[in-house]
Design goal:
Two copies of one chain form a homodimer. Chain A is about 25% helix and about 40% strand. Chain A has a six-stranded mixed β-sheet. The first copy, chain A, has a single domain, classed as Nuclear Transport Factor 2, Chain: A (Roll), CATH 3.10.450. The radius of gyration of chain A is 16 Å and the shape is globular. The termini of chain A are far apart. Chain A has four helices and six strands. By secondary structure, chain A is α+β, with helices and mostly antiparallel strands.
Chain lengths: ~140, ~140
């Protein structure tokens, strides 16, 4: 028997479970958080826009097959509607590279939608976001827009 | 006398005006589209998270002082609530670099909010997003999450 998907009572609860699933490397828990909707969108840092549950699942399968992700979220700015909720968060990720452990700072925009089983993740958009909340120093960033 | 801010009847209208203001390099038109809210968030490609109208205005002033931005938006995926609306779009930007004209593809998540003067932009989050909508090929992207 398939387990019932969890009933998530708020966007905050989904967000906590989302980063927790990454930290535990738990693909099943991760995928239970997404909306049951072919319109889901996931953009990993530096990656293309993935649309639909199949593409989103494949990407997480690939990422989490490498083990847990050492990630913390902070500095949440939330805007809440009746059926839609958006969080802008800062992600701090510890990455093991050739030069040892490195801290990468990303900004993520997470969009949550309310459905029959409570709140679910509809869009996760994460991208490297520089060291601090100051105007961009690099002209290359300013050139794009 | 200060002109009244425009009455924008939909998130679509704000989005059209947003990319149009970039293409025309029009700072006044650009800033008239943002919510009158210290919580506005703008993340330029590769840049840090900017919070508040002062930081957002300064960034656009710097960018548009370089002239118009040759940008097109396409492949819009929208989710609409009563007071909140989110668009995921692909941006195609022509950049003049050392090696001539280059096309950069970004993904943007734009969040709109309904206020007393119609719809306004609350969050613009743009980041380089690879060449196509396929799973990330670079392991560096997969390593972050």
């Amino acid at each position: 028997m398939m387990p019932m998907p969890p009933l998530l009572s708020s966007a905050d609860a989904v967000e906590d479970a989302f980063y927790d699933a990454m930290r535990r490397g738990d693909l099943t828990a991760m995928m239970a958080l997404w909306a049951d909707d072919e319109e889901v969108v996931c953009i990993h840092p530096g990656g293309p826009r993935l649309v639909g549950l199949d593409a989103v699942r494949a990407s997480w399968e690939s990422i989490l097959s490498g083990g847990p992700v050492d990630i913390q979220s902070s500095e949440v700015r939330a805007i809440s509607g009746a059926m839609l909720c958006v969080h802008s968060v800062i992600e701090t990720i510890q990455v093991q590279g050739r030069r040892g452990s490195e801290t990468v700072r990303c900004a993520a925009t997470n969009v949550y939608v309310k459905g029959p089983r409570g709140w679910r993740l509809l869009i996760h958009h994460a991208a490297p976001a520089g060291a601090s909340e100051s105007p961009p120093a690099a002209p290359s960033g300013a050139m794009l827009h």
